[in-house]
Amino acid sequence: MDIGAFVEMIIVAISAVLAKWIYIDLYLQQTYSDVWSYLWVGMLGACLTTVTLRKQQLYDVDRFASQSRHLRRYFIGLAVAFLLLAALGYGVKVSTEYSRGWALTWFAIAFVLLVSERKLAVRTIGKLLDAGPFARRVAFVGDEALLQPLIRDIRANSGIVVAGVYPYYCDPSGRWKAKSLDDLINHSRTMRIDDVVLAVPLAAQDAIVNAASRLSQLPVNISVFAGELTGLATPRGLRRLGSTQLFALQSRPIDDWGRIVKSAFDRIGSAALLLVLMPLFAAIAIAIKLDSSGPVFFSQRRHGLNHRVINVLKFRTMRVAEDGPRITQATSNDPRVTRIGAFLRRTSLDELPQLWNVLRGEMSLVGPRPHAIVHNEYYGELIEAYANRHKVKPGMTGWAQIHGYRGNTEDPELMRKRVEYDLHYIEKWSLSLDLEVLIKTVWKGFVNARAY
9-59: per-residue pLDDT in tens? Predict the structure, then answer.
């Protein structure tokens, strides 16, 4: 909701100039005063106000779907910002240059405009959220007795859609069972789910931990609906869903503006590279056709975001095209590799057609490298948290690759290190990190002793 914060910064800054025109020019009739000095103070006040309003949680997503308590929050946020501004003016000895009447007028205008703007924004965003694509899709897991009042409250808020209800029941021995978690994980791969809310009695903390652990592979927010969860660590703090307060256990990776920025970076970057590299593509295609019979491109099914199956493109480097329940990985001096294929694999030029996958939105320029489906299934059972690599789109290059973890994956220990680097990337993602990986890939990641 950074757009909302930016709009409200402009409102506060413009309000300072309006207050100057109304109070100084019209009321006091002092038209000789400099408008720029008031604008600069207004901009400083706007910056302070953005901080204090954010502290009032007015830029949380749920606040744009509700009208509750906006008046009080705006009043407190503005009041604190103006007090800080007054203290700053007193400290640098310029407070006497500005009229208290102007400051009060500025406060009143800013307050009225901010509240009016938020009412209009909530009404507009509410209509967009109710339209469907912008709705927040929530799946509920837990005891049905706890879920019913929660779901009724959620349905009363615009912009929230119930994506499914998955019961979590207690067997006669007192152990909590959740066979429906498998259904939720499978359903999430065919439909969009943004949040998962767990609703289990407080006494069943082991059930909450178990469910959260199993669901951690999904690219969703995971929260708990309950009172105080004694002994359960909640490092992510609290989260709101409509008017309901939840304990946050997991946040969706690369969320909100980060997702938009990364997607734009991927699409623009892949389109530009495809245009620039067209001559190289043509040269490689001709070389492949002259070197051996068969198609120029090779397509293999691999898992993408949230385990959805995608067809990953590569230049053909072998005399065979394996994509089934058994895939033999390439080894040093592999007889299946063609002469031009050996060069393409050593230099990673065989990966360039994946720019098309990036342009289609199936992959990213940077992310965990996708593995063949049969290898995914094998390592998914062998390595804990392996499935968590699929919480983001797979990448053409990645944090693990620039640190030397690439090529043959038959050694489980090497794969564990690769997964460790992939999960580090997901946790620490930033646009600057993507740029660092791409730059290092150019001089370090293309050619590697393990690329064969």
Answer: 999 999 999 999 998 888 887 766 678 888 899 999 999 998 998 888 777
User: What is the spatial distance between Cα 33 and Cα 10, in angstroms, rounded to a whole number?
Assistant: 22
Are 160 and 135 in contact by the 8 Å Cβ rule? The answer is yes
Rg value, the chain, Cα: 28
Which class is domain 136-250?
alpha beta
Structure tokens of 336? 């299946």
Residues 155-213 have pLDDT tens digits of 776 667 888 888 877 666 656 666 678 888 888 888 888 899 988 776 777 788 888 88
Residue 421, number of CB atoms within 10 A of its CB: 18
Maximum distance among all alpha carbons in the chain? 91
* DSSP-based three-state secondary structure for 298: strand
Residue 335 has pLDDT above 90, yes or no: no
- Show the tokens assigned to 437: 């990986």
Q: What are the sequence ranges of the domains in the chain?
A: 2-130, 136-250, 257-445
* CA quadruple 86, 88, 93, 94: dihedral sign: negative
- DSSP for 305-360 reads GGG-EEEEEEE--BS----SS--PPP-TT-TTB-HHHHHHHHHTGGGTTHHHHHHT
